[in-house]
Each structure stands twice: as C-alpha cells, then as structure tokens.
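Weekly sync notes, structure subgroup
Attendees: PM, AL, DS (notes)

Item 1: joint prediction request from the bench team. They want all two components modeled as one assembly rather than separately. Inputs as received:
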Amino acid sequence: DAGVIQSPRHEVTEMGQEVTLRCKPISGHNSLFWYRQTMMRGLELLIYFNNNVPIDDSGMPEDRFSAKMPNASFSTLKIQPSEPRDSAVYFCAIPRDYLIYEQYFGPGTRLTVT
Amino acid sequence: QQPVQSPQAVILREGEDAVINCSSSKALYSVHWYRQKHGEAPVFLMILLKGGEQKGHEKISASFNEKKQQSSLYLTASQLSYSGTYFCGGGPRTNYGGSQGNLIFGKGTKLSVKP
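Output from the run, pasted for the record:
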C-alpha cells in the first residue's frame, strides 16, 4: 500500500535560515511531486520528478528553492535562505499507478518562518 | 490559468445534494477531484478522462464537458463525512496517454454538512 513519510511535521525557523524538508515513500517510487499550500495561493505544484529526474520545476518560486530525489525512496526540498512568505504547508505526493491517475499525499510539513 | 471553482463555499444539511463546478481556460486531458479535511492531506476522489472514462467514488459522481472544459462534482444525499474542501485539478495529456500528473489545482470549494 502506498504511504509517504514526511519530516519534520512542523518546522519553525527564523528568516534567513536554511530549511530542509524530507519525503520518504514507504515503497520506492520513481515519480514524486512537491506541493505548497497557502490560503492565498491554494495548492501549487512546485516540482515533479519522474525516474528520479526533475521533469517540471516551473512551479519552484525562485532560486532559493531546490529539490533533489537521489533515489526512489527519498526526496528533499530545501529553502535557503528562508523568508516569512515561505510559510506554508508543504506536501509531497506519489502516484498510485503508472499512469499517475491518482496521487497519494503525505501528511505534510507545516513551515513557519518568522 | 488556475481552474476556477464555484461556489467558494456551501453549507448543507445532511441528506441534501450539492454540485461543485470547475472551469478551465486551458485544454485538459483529465480532471482530478480531491477532498481535504481540515488539518489533513488532500485525498483522491476521482478522475475524469477525455473520452468519457471515469473512475468513481461511492456516492459521489462527476461529469466532464470536454468542449467547454468544465467539470462538475455531484454529492448526493450528503453525509457529515463529506465536509471538507474540494479541489479540482487539471492535467495535460502526455505522449504515452496517461496524465502526466503535473496538476494545476483550483482554489477549492469548502463544503460544510450540518446535522
């Protein structure tokens, strides 16, 4: 069964600090999505990996954001330096099937940048 | 280019019906519907594909008008468990026929079902 572990679940940091969010699919997947959710902008796709390679990173806000997927069981989203406007809930999601009809979302990381 | 959902919010009594609409200005291959309860992650409900195929969910159904690029989600005889925010997401077609998965989501419709 699909399952995703995200860590940390909550992160509070000061402006200017580096933040690393982690995503671990329980069963390895070659495709993975990172989303950001805010009240103002809703649920936005940041980056999409397929075969561990970034396919679409057009949603990454700016150079402060970077993401990696070194293998099918792990991905990171890094923000350096962080800013208050980065405060959001960050989800990673994996497909339930090879056609990617259904995405299974992890529990999310709530990031607060003060 | 974000799909537009309407209404933004709706309040129902248990047993009442509701329709949530989703409209896109871009040509879509697929429309995906998700529900998110407060403090939780979005959960997949169903997908509608160009050509009419759909994968459904218990008492919730949906339609996809390809010409108008509009989709509607129908919640029949609503239950308390239907409360949450409903998102539609539009997906472009890939060369291999599936949905590439890089969805653009609408801002959501908040549904509250009261006893």
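Discussion: DSSP finds no helices and eleven strands in chain A.
Action: AL to compare against the crosslinking data before next sync.
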